[in-house]
Design a protein that fits this description.
The chain has 190 residues and is mainly α. The protein has one domain. It has 9 helices and no strands.
Length: 190
Amino acid sequence: MEFFHLVSFISEYLIQGIFISVLVVWIASVTTKRDYGYAKILFKWIMIAYAALAITGLLFFVFYQWYDGIEYSGYSFGDRFFGDFWFSFWVMLGGNLITPFILLSKKISNKFVFLFLVGVMMNIGWLFERFVIIITSLQRDYEPEGWFVHVLLFILPLNIYFFRGLLLGIVVLIVGQVITRAPRKKQPIE
């Protein structure tokens, strides 16, 4: 279960709002006329690592549902793939898990525009992931008194992720400045 906790941690603290972090560094790059190549590399590999871990987790979960043999759990997972809200699952899959692999191209990953767009797509995928989890669970629940809490859980945390993304962008800028200004020892020539 530690694997799923790792994916959740990366998703909660790094991916949700990463487009804000990229935007902060992009604005700093434009205003100071510096490259910030370290930030591009960091954001690129955070997005790719999350996508790889999340795809691995999804494949493991699909295998577990198949191997489990419990008909209801297999049905509920298949319902997310091909049920009434199939479009939201495939938007989630494309935006959150497949789009970041575009960044493996050096031409694309060296431009803030594409990092920003991939970050936006990942956040759209993340929002659809919440939508898939909440709405497909509510779809079979016919008691309306339980719906309000789930709708609040979908809407309220959005401003928190904006501030997390802002803080991550500022931290990346500060750490990058410390790393680039640190004096390096010269190696003696033998």
